[in-house]
Input
Amino acid sequence: MVTFPPQQLDCPDRAGCPVVAPLPELRTAIVPAGRALFRVYSSTWGYDEHNPGFGDARFSPFDDPTTGERVPAMYLAEDKKSALLETVFHDVHHTSSRTVYEKDLVGQLLAYVVVPRRAILGDLRNAELGRLNI
Output
């Protein structure tokens, strides 16, 4: 069994990142069975494997408030461009040199996945984040 450190919801720069603790109750979004989505993932893992809770991503890791267990995460997007921008190009900003190094792309793969059954997800899209003042 994988053991994770406690979730870290404290922001080192309060003015720069709005960390919300405890997690507010989210509205849900439904992804219907058969919906096609895109995912960029590391070749170390399978295209359909969730991140079990490692790292420090924008929406993870966090613990389920009812069970205390780490919630696995998977970034999916409606198109290839969004999948790439949210992952391998996430740190390329308009204020930086916009240089992308080949070493940062090695081992990254793009998958076209089809949702096998209806999924009910916490809604973390822009409009919902705005509603929550995040």
In short: The chain has a mean pLDDT of 79. DSSP finds three helices and four strands in the chain. Residues 80-86 form the longest helix (7 residues). The helical segments are 80-86, 102-105, 126-131.
